[in-house]
Amino acid sequence: MLGPYQTPMALVREPLMSFFWVILAPVLFLTGGALIAQEIIPPFQPGSPEELQAYQTSWLFACLSMAAWFAIMSLWSEKLGAGPFAGRMTTTSNWILIGAIIGPLLLILPSLVVSSIMTEEGWQYREEINEAVFAPENWTIAYIFVAVIMAPVVEEVAFRGIALGAIIARGLSPVAAVTISSLAFAFSHLQYSPAAMFVVFLSGIGFAVLRLMSGTVIVPIIAHMTANANVLLLNWVAANPPT
């Protein structure tokens, strides 16, 4: 049965499991995958061929970890009665176009505003994070797949499907649902600095509004995909300026 904003009302049945899939599962699966990759990757010198191979292995494990997170979460959602994506996956061509156009703006505009305030270089990541993992010269097919395909699908199902849906199904206001689910989305990106997590929070609000207005999870998925793809393109152009 569907409730307000085409929300599967079955999501109200297991609040603790909803909390697990949204808050604990990202840490369990993604951190676990990263730790396993760290154990099997041999030491390498920066700039060596082994460095790129190490990044490739790391992102392959990230892809597998996200796939496991999504697969088990999707099976739970289907068994619960909310469908494998915790919401509808059909929409009109107009909403697809809206998602594709608005998506990049939801991520790029907050990034520009925050970056205009920050003075230091590399403000996006926490100090202990190796930024070379995300540098364009070290990109791999696995990294691009995770950023453009895997992460948008898994994160939108978790945060705009399960989190947002469970809160709406319990009768809370749309404002509360958007805010809480966007906070959870931001704090799942622990590799970022507080300023960058604020950018993620703002983009999460935009994705959540698209989910409520369209009544389907597919629209924020498309918006998230186009947003990440555009950010990758801009970073690549910045690292490889035309001569």
Short description:
The chain has helices at 15-40, 49-80, 93-117, 141-169, 174-187, 194-214, 218-239. By secondary structure, the chain is mainly α.
The shape is: globular
Total helical segments = 7
* Rg of Cα set: 18 Å
Category by helix and strand content: mainly alpha
Instruction: Tell me the span between the first and last alpha carbons.
Output: 58 Å
Largest sheet: none
Number of discrete domains: 1
Which sequence of SSEs, written as H and E, runs from N to C?
A: HHHHHHH
Low-confidence stretches: none
Strands, count: 0
Helix share of residues? Answer: 55-70%
Approximate strand percentage: under 5%
**Mean pLDDT figure:** 93
If you had to describe this structure to a student in words, what would you say it looks like?
The N and C termini lie far apart (58 Å). It contains seven helices and no strands. The protein is an all-alpha fold and 243 residues long. It has helices at 15-40, 49-80, 93-117, 141-169, 174-187, 194-214, 218-239. α1 packs antiparallel against α4 (141-169), α3 crosses α7 (218-239) and α6 runs antiparallel to α7.
Write the layout of secondary structure elements.
Blueprint: H1 15-40, H2 49-80, H3 93-117, H4 141-169, H5 174-187, H6 194-214, H7 218-239
Helix pairs in contact: 1-2, 1-4, 2-4, 3-6, 3-7, 4-5, 4-7, 5-6, 6-7
Structure characteristics:
243 residues; mainly alpha; 70% helix; globular
